[in-house]
Design a protein that fits this description.
mainly alpha, 3 helices, rod-shaped, coiled coil
Length: 172
Amino acid sequence: MAPSFYHNSPVPVVDDLEGSMLTRRKLPLWLVLFLLFPVVVGLLVPLIYFAVRANSKGCVDGLQAQKECQEVNQHLQRQLNQAQEISHEKETEAATCNSSVVTLRESLKKEQAQVAEFQGELRILNQNLKDALAEVERLRSQSETSSKNNASSYSSFLFVVIAFLVLNALLT
């Protein structure tokens, strides 16, 4: 057999895992800090920017305006609720008034019917009065022709007619 000329270097056997190059590599501390610095700065800059921006005059004014808007909105909401309550009360009052109007209209119709009835009775009484006056006139002319001696009966009849006329005048 021919001799071999290449040499394999022996692989060191290490018992502890920390010393193994294959299992863990240690980075120097300055390299770790150098790599973490941009990450930390990258996270802190936006936080600082938003913190400064949140405390800026415009933002504070915006928050104040928002607070005032909310207060005005709450005030307007209270006014709206009061207006709705008043509207509900007025609707109730209107319903009561409408009911009263219906009742009054019915009463008015009854009163109008009574007035019409009274007017009919008044027409009848006026006709009776005209008839009585015509009768008085006829009797007077008859009594003038028949006798002048019966003056006392004529005056008592005249008294009845005048009383009837006064009564009629009081009724109208």
